[in-house]
What we know:
This protein is mainly β and 687 residues long. 6% of the residues lie in helices and 35% in strands. Bound molecules: copper (II) ion.
Amino acid sequence: MTTNKYLKIAFALLFTGLLSPALFAQDKKDTGTLTQKEDDFYSIKTIQIPEDVILEVGGMTFLPNDQLAVCTRHGEVWIISNPYMKNGQPPKYRLFAQGLHEALGLNYINGDLYLTQRSELTRLRDLDGDGVADEYKTIYSWPLSGNYHEYAYGPVLDKDGNMAVNLNLAWVGHGESLSKWHGWTIKITADGKMKPFVTGLRSPAGFALNDKGDMFYAENQGDWVGSGSITEMEEGDFMGNPGGLVWAAEPGSPVKLRVKDMIDDSEPKYEVAKRIPGLKTPSVWFPHTILGVSTSGILNYEDKGISTPYQGKMGPFTGQLFVGDQGQSKIMRVYLEKIKGVYQGMVWPFREGFSSGILRMNWGSDGSMFVGMTSRGWSSTGGGLYGLQRLEWNGKTPFEMKTVQARPDGFEIEFTEAVDDKTAKDPSSWALSSFTYQYHHEYGSPVINIGSCPLKAIEVSPDHMKVRLVVDSMRLGYIHEIRAPGIRSTNRYALLHNYGYYTLNNFPDGDKLAITAANKVTPVMHHHDMMNMTGGVAGGKGSIKAVSGVKHLTKQPADWTSGPDRTLVIGTKPGLKFDQETLTVKAGAKVKLTFKNSDDMLHNFVITRPGTADKVGQLAVTLGLNGEKMSFVPSSQDVLFHTRLLHPKESDTIYFIAPDKPGQYVYICSYPGHYMVMRGVLKVVAK
Ligand SMILES: [Cu+2]
């Protein structure tokens, strides 16, 4: 891994001052502009949970009588009456089933409740009508190795009446399929037969059908997965993590690829897929840390009869998908289009601010969205260990990009409200760029090959609802960032969310827009262009003599002739923890500190100035696409010393001189989503 290279580039950018949170909030300071908040349209209501119920939601489904059934990680099924808390009355909870093994999926199918436990698909029935399940029937079971990471999710009913189940890979420092069909989607037919469907899955917690009946699953960043995504699953597909390929030659497997076919050279996945037929690339990438860190449940706006008897009422987004995120407690919105037989499309932020890690969403009978949450021992922005909330739309339409469609020479953006002609035609209202990720056995990927996409022409439709952009340098297989900070509605509103990401798998056929004197624009220089120009500059901030001011010094300074005064080693524990909550050093001591990452996620170690840990953690989130290159260490005087961002099994040793001033210096992992819980205190004591 060439992390150092990225670090050097990041340092170079840091010192040229180009990377700043302002890059991601370049709204014009225009006094005539009106702004909107998510809360002006979509309100979050908390559903009460009795004190003695630990509702770590693993699965949710509505029953026909408008009761909500919830299964939990702890193996219980609760049936909740009046989850809407109508007339100010609290909901009623009834324990329907218990003693199950980590139930992470629940569905009401053909009059019965089905759920997945760790090792089987189970049907629950209440035969004597006392409101409690008395028959737990195994429909199909699969082997387990005992590895903690062998989660199972589902069932989802496909359009042919089969029940699909997703099986997670085990984690042994990397993803591996230690027992049969882990890393696969398997389908159970109505007569109980099992058919392997696709493999290459890593951590497929969410899957659902779209309004066409095609099945999509949500993937999380990890080994062989550069960033989160949703991807259509078609029989025989290989999604990218080779773990599950060990079963590809088993009877009944529709997957033609074998482990020996894999290519591990860090090229973009789209490029590798040209050489490995059967390797599927994402329908829509979710850029890591910007649109989530752990993509989870998928909810189809027209979900009727699929995972709930009801449909959504969430604004003018017919045909679209809502996708949850566990680590960032928020929901994204996805517009899909199918071009030349392959799905692609755009993802935007939709609503943030939920109370815990989002795993499941369902529509209630009133069209509100029920959001089931667990932080699963990991942290989430919401902070709560678990929760149940409901998102309600008040009927007012926010000013948003409603759809983005690819064109042979650019994009066509449809808005929910009429756009102001002058701002739409001003090229400085827009900023387009593209980038992708590496496909390799490493965990995650830096953002690579960032390029700008200058505008060549802009045309506004006669009704002002659409804007056609002619765009230079669009690239197949790339994620296209579309920012529209300068766009205003005819009512002077700025967009509620002024950016999103379009994954381009194919160009559609059709006519290109004729560029005329009326629609032609003069290209504007954006930050991204400048980043490209400085991208090749190597940073000169390696190990230097003076320790003062250097925050990441990886060689022992030459003048430490008798070595460090203090040697510290700190590691990780599962569940987003450092293995030591306090470290103690004397003021002014020469310190050698080694941080070892033995966890299955990415972490860093950042020592902050007293009282600034939260501020530093929040700043790290705003680094956006540049975060990984910067090891998620913000350029701030509140950061005293830090390691680089460590992948699983990596370590980094740093040298620093402890502050002269005794006090409590909080250290955090500033990787987005971690700082709230992954922290400790460096106690600096008087000499
Ligand atoms: Cu971390």
